[in-house]
Design a protein that fits this description.
The complex is a heterodimer of chains A (142) and B (387). With 142 residues, chain A is of the alpha/beta class. Chain A is built from five helices and five strands. Helix content of chain B is 79%, strand content 0%. The termini of chain B are far apart. At the A-B interface, α2, α3, α4 and α5 of A face α1, α2, α3, α6 and α11 of B.
Chain lengths: 142, 387
């Protein structure tokens, strides 16, 4: 039984596809939908700039998540939105554990060479450490 | 004027390239600007004999210096006065340990292993002692520790470390004459007056398109900066302290802080960091890489030795304690400011400056790589399987 579904969202094409899939699944199972956006500090940060980047991206994601409720259509599933800070995979797995999520849905997209070298793909990390089932929604290109 | 506009177009062009690189690599723009400045000086300086870069032109020095002052003010304004007042004893102890371990350790390395003279060795200690509060704050948010006792103490401690660095830089090389007394007196009077004068002034005259707030703040920062340099101290010392005393008022005005950041990052700090990079001599660094490597290793080992036991004592989980400790080793802003102060006051040679800046840059990158490779929380350990 799927009661809680978690989807990662950043307004990219891949996350829009993941959100559409998650909404459909939530309707089918009458599940609660948790939509999270993760604000990422720079990999190598410095004083004031890191604060500025985090403040700006958290504000940006809050606006995105406020707008995303309109996208879930009707009838709307029960919806929780949250902006987290950190590495997307780490934060999604942490959130899933803390909130007893039954299913995680993530999009799949490319990363910069540096990001991949430092932490690898978000989807791969979520699959490796998730406490529940994971669906990776791939684009036709990937 | 043609020459000045050509030079400024070149510098802003370099800043744009550095920003694009920083976005692509997801690294601090300051780091990218230092590296771009170093490479540009090597390429353009060699081709045009340094005339086009003009790193010593007075207009460029002013923009760079103003950038350092405003950036330091903004760093000070990030302090949370309520947390600091509540946790100052514990935070003071940790912050001073986090400052003293690399300060004395790296000064000893410079003096006894590298054979630098005493003044240059102390400056090396100062440049290597810093910590980036914002980077540690990001880590605390990531672990959800920012609201805990541990998180608040560590964050307040980072401010103490940076304060010790700035005070050390401002006072260690000052000659202690009557000018020092005048500067200290004027500084203390300003720090007492500013917290009540500033909110009143902003309420009475502020919130207009003429950006009165920015002009008022710059008047105090440049005025105290002038007094500091007249007393042969460093202009960033009063700037950081003004930021700290105004953290509870100006620091909470997010719209004003955002406008000051736009001015600082958009125009001023590119000149500061590119200039800091352009003064690095890559040939000197390549000829004697030992100094850079020893200082880098010294900073990492002394930070870990000083800070990790404290995170352990505060009952932080092992992985997260080491992750926090490693990221406390970053400190581009104050490290670069200290090194440039040393070069401009003839405390260090260009070769020593190059080793210091290289070690400061590497101390932002290397601990991040080590932290991500070996000490990430368990969810980000290397994947066991691929999709």
């Amino acid at each position: 039984m799927i009661r809680k579904i978690l989807v990662g969202y950043d307004a990219s094409d891949s996350s829009e596809r993941a959100l559409a899939f998650a909404v459909e699944l939530a309707r089918k199972f009458n599940a609660e939908l948790h939509i999270v956006a993760v604000s990422r500090p720079p990999e190598v940060g410095d004083d004031v700039e890191t604060s500025a980047v985090m403040e700006q991206s958290r504000r940006h994601f809050r606006r995105l998540l406020d707008a995303v409720r309109a996208k879930v259509g009707t009838p709307p599933p029960a919806c929780v939105t949250q902006v987290l800070v950190g590495h997307p995979a780490e934060q999604m797995v942490r959130y899933a554990e803390a909130n007893d999520v039954d299913h995680i849905i993530v999009g799949h997209r490319g990363h910069t060479v540096f990001e991949r070298w430092l932490i690898g793909s978000v989807a791969r990390q979520v699959i490796a450490y998730a406490p529940c089932a994971v669906t990776v929604v791939r684009s036709s290109k990937s | 004027m043609t020459e000045i506009w050509t030079q400024s177009a070149l510098w802003i062009g370099l800043a744009l390239v550095a920003t694009l690189l920083a976005i692509g690599l997801r690294v601090a723009t300051a780091l990218s600007e230092i590296v771009v400045g170093t490479i540009a000086q090597l390429l353009i300086g060699a081709t045009f004999a340094g005339a086009l870069m003009a790193a010593d032109a007075s207009w460029l020095k002013f923009l760079a210096g103003a950038g350092a002052i405003l950036l330091t003010f903004l760093a000070g304004a990030e302090l949370d006065p309520a947390v600091f007042r509540k946790e100052w004893k514990q935070a003071g102890l940790i912050g001073l340990v986090s400052f003293a371990a690399p300060f004395f350790g790296c000064a000893a390395i410079a003096r006894w292993l590298l054979g630098w003279d005493p003044q240059a060795s102390w400056l090396a200690g100062i440049a290597m002692s810093t910590t980036s509060v914002a980077v540690v704050y990001a880590v605390m948010l990531e672990f959800g520790l920012n609201a805990t006792h541990y998180g608040k103490v560590v964050l307040a401690a980072c401010f103490v470390t940076d304060l010790a660095t700035v005070v050390g830089l401002g006072l260690l090389f000052a000659p202690f004459t009557m000018k020092t007394v005048v500067f200290a007196g004027a500084g203390i009077a300003s720090f007492v007056v500013l917290p009540w004068l500033t909110p009143w002034f902003f309420r009475r005259f502020g919130n207009r398109p003429s950006e009165l707030e920015a002009k008022y703040l710059m008047l105090w920062l440049f005025g105290l900066g002038a007094l500091a340099t007249w007393a042969e101290s460093e202009a960033v010392l009063p700037a950081y302290l003004v930021g700290m005393v105004l953290a509870g008022t100006v620091g909470k005005d997010h719209a004003l802080i955002r406008r000051l950041r736009t001015l600082t990052f958009g125009l001023l700090t590119p000149f500061y960091f590119i200039r800091a990079g352009s003064l690095v001599s890559l040939p000197a660094l390549a000829a004697a890489p030992g100094a850079f490597l020893l200082l880098l290793a010294g900073k990492l080992l002394t930070k870990v030795a000083g800070v990790y036991p404290v995170t352990h004592a505060l009952r932080s989980p092992r992985q997260e304690g080491m992750y926090t400790t490693l990221l406390m080793s970053t400190g581009l802003t104050f490290g670069t400011i200290s090194a440039l102060f040393g070069l401009s006051h003839d405390i260090v040679t260009q070769a020593q400056y190059s080793a210091l800046v290289a070690a400061v840059v590497a101390s932002a990158v290397v601990p991040t790589i080590i932290a991500n490779a070996f000490f990430l929380p368990r969810h980000l350990l290397p994947a066991k399987e691929s999709p």
